Amino acid sequence: MPAISIALEPARAPTALQKLVRLAARYSLSALGPVSISAAHFLGAVLVLHTLPRLQFGLFSFVMTIVPFCVSAASALVGAPTIIGIRQRGHVDDAELATFQKANFALGLLVFAVVSASLLGSGMRLEASLLFGLYGALMSLRLLGRTYAYAVDSPARAAISDAVYSVIVLAGLWALHFVDRIGMTNIAMLFSLAALSSMAAFDRDYLRKQFRRLGAGTLAAYAPVWRDLTRWSLVGVAATELTVNAHAYFVTFFSGPGAFALLALGGLLMRPVSLVLSAFPDMERPIMARAIGAGDLVRGFRAVKEFRMAGVAVLLVTIALAAVLLFRFPQVVLKQGYDSHQALLIVAVWIAIMAIRVLRTPEAVFLQAAGAFQPLANASLKSCAVSLVATLVLLMAFGPIASLLGIVAGDLVLTVSIFSLMREWRLQHG
Q: For the whole prediction, is pTM greater than 0.70?
């Protein structure tokens, strides 16, 4: 009887469409949370814009600038070392997590003081300043919970947390508007409640450790982490913040919150991009760190490429939405006293700024996953100097709108430096 042979067909490589669908599915969960938060913040900004004086809108926009900076600082101080631990051991160490949670709690207290003092100095009332300080502290605490969720491969918890925050903010803003109680103090109270409630989505054991077992970790154990890693990470974050938001601080303090209000409009319309660029790294750093730790650089570089593709997609969608609002429904984002031609110019500059950041952020996240915090800090310091000088000179010489070009200059310097660092890393590691 003749032998029967069965030929197995080789597995077919996925088509370009299949790759695109997989990429969209991978990023959709991570993007859903930041986009929903962006929608909630956008509604809050629109209500403040149309309900309160221009000065109050400028103050609200300043809150939406300084609190994300504090969250970025938390990412540098406690989020980054968590990811480095994954690269070295493949998992999150319980003892280190306890130390990072204690450091995060101490950071939350510092954030409360810094945000409250900054807002008081900008002219906000005491009650609202303290409540927004509490909001900043809670958002900083929440950051480590999101980082931990991605680190232990539970991205759904991070997405649910974002959704809870967004729903509470949206529902609360609608209720405040319905009863005609829109005000900075009530908005600050609502945002704080939303931030606190959103943490319920995190692992119960994680929350118990964060709020009930603060004695489990020691700040002394954090000292070597600070010495070897996070001081450079924090320098990089602080310098990058000054690079990308120097106009916010200079215009607010030299020209007043009212002058910053119009500049904030462009940032508001591009906010989905900035939120996604700050949220995607929570998902990508663990992937890149594991790939680098395993020597799978092909996978790590592919993550960089996919990150950029997702960022470009979000940027294009955001530009389209901004165009619809500005040309079809300008009354939503503009009111009496806001020049439409100036608004278009500001949005155009903001689009250029966001395009530059979309270009460089994937490489920056890869270098963070590789532990190159000191070179990144040096690059950020160089770009920071350019941004500060250029922004201040342009502000004093030509006014608030021109100051945005100083941000473009700093962003370009930082982007060139990061690509140079990435090229050097590739040459050293093959």
A: yes
